[in-house]
Write a structure and sequence with these properties.
Number of helices of chain B: 0
Number of strands of chain A: 12
Shape of chain B: globular
Largest sheet of chain B: 7 strands, mixed
Structural class of chain A: mainly beta
Largest interface: A-B, 27 and 30 residues
CATH superfamily of chain A: Immunoglobulins
Number of domains of chain A: 1
Number of strands of chain B: 11
Largest sheet of chain A: 6 strands, mixed
Helix content of chain B: under 10%
Distance between the termini of chain B: 33 Å
Helix content of chain A: under 10%
Number of domains of chain B: 1
CATH topology of chain B: Immunoglobulin-like
CATH class of chain B: Mainly Beta
CATH topology of chain A: Immunoglobulin-like
Radius of gyration of chain A: 14 Å
Oligomer: heterodimer
Order of helices and strands of chain B: EEEEEEEEEEE
Strand content of chain B: over 45%
Structural class of chain B: mainly beta
Chain lengths: 114, 115
């Protein structure tokens, strides 16, 4: 079975500071990796995905993530955050072949302070 | 439509009542998924359809939960004899094809509260 661990339940940062949200996963077979963002009372919006190729992937709103196979990590980064980035962020994996379901981490609440 | 539409947005029911939650996927999307998101948690998979066929229902927590997609478009998640532990946000997602590299597009969810 697959599992996803988001190492920080809450991350407070000041506006315009850099941020890193950590994600580690466990799987005995190959997976694709995703980061989603959830604003209050809304569904999940795809930030970025890693399917293959370059391990550094760029997404929307200035976010990027780096896939590290040896450390089974997929950390999300942004060099300078804005108040509007305040939201819940979820890391997720899906089997490349097999069950068509996303397995999510517990989420990280990003709070931006002015 | 432009996105995945779920209704109602909020549902309050008394314990023991039956509820039905509706999902309208993006037009033309073959795959449809239901997830349950408890307060402060990540979404958890419930069930998956490819067109009208329910290919995976391994996440349904009990036989009180039932989902259908009879014409391969709109889907309904039904919960019978609701219990307090059923209180959660129920998210629907759709994707263009039945392959893992296709992103899943989520609706805004139905927040179910069982009194």
């Amino acid at each position: 079975a697959q599992s996803v661990t988001q190492l920080d339940s809450q991350v407070p940062v000041f506006e315009e500071a850099p941020v890193e949200l950590r994600c580690n996963y466990s799987s005995s077979v190959s997976v694709y990796l995703f980061w989603y963002v959830q604003y209050p009372n809304q569904g999940l919006q795809l930030l970025l995905k890693y399917l293959s190729g370059s391990t550094l992937v760029k997404g929307i709103n200035g976010f990027e993530a780096e896939f590290n196979k040896s450390q089974t990590s997929f950390h999300l980064r942004k060099p300078s955050v804005h108040i509007s980035d305040t939201a819940e962020y979820f890391c997720a994996v899906i089997l490349i072949q097999g069950a068509q379901k996303l397995v999510f981490g517990q989420g990280t609440r990003l709070t931006i302070n002015p | 439509g432009a996105g995945v539409s779920q209704s109602p947005r909020y549902k309050v029911a008394k314990r023991g009542q039956d509820v039905a939650l509706r999902c309208d996927p993006i037009s033309g999307h073959v795959s449809l998924f239901w997830y349950q998101q408890a307060l402060g948690q990540g979404p958890e998979f419930l069930t998956y359809f490819q067109n009208e066929a329910q290919l995976d229902k391994s996440g349904l927590p009990s036989d009180r939960f039932f989902a259908e997609r009879p014409e391969g478009s709109v889907s309904t998640l039904k919960i019978q004899r609701t219990q307090q532990e059923d209180s959660a946000v129920y998210l629907c997602a759709s994707s263009l094809q039945g392959s893992s590299n296709q992103p899943q597009h989520f609706g805004d969810g139905t927040r179910l509260s069982i009194l």
